[in-house]
Amino acid sequence: MTKYDDADWHYGGNFPDDLPNAAGGTHIGMFVAWCLLSGFAGEDVEDELEPLKSHEATPGAFLMKVLDEKFVSDDLTADGNAFAVAYYAGENDDSRYIDDYLDAFDTTASDIYRVEDSWETYAVIAERIDARFQAWADAGRPRYIA
Fold this sequence. Notes:
Number of strands: 2
Helix content: 40-55%
Shape: globular
Number of domains: 1
Mean pLDDT: 94
Strand order of the largest sheet: 1-2
């Protein structure tokens, strides 16, 4: 099993004192929610998707509660993992997803945690992830997205 990300990697150190720890998982939850809602849910989480599908839980809250703050390879299918490696992890941890996330919300790396965990936020970033996924698939599913 590969651990792609963990909220507790973010809410230590230079994390803003005025934010709850959950803010460290928002950007992770947005990507995970897109994967799960796009048909890439692994067997371990297939039966737990109702809070996402019904919008009862926001993407970040789903990550924090249902996935125990972690994004791991077992959460996804083989195709989902291939895309996660190419886009979320990136070559040498150079994530194109984070670049797109910062650009979508016109924010900086130091303010990434201030993006709201909401379905409105999800709609904005999901559009970018959709486009990246399509371009990745059209390019023959390269190991990494440049």
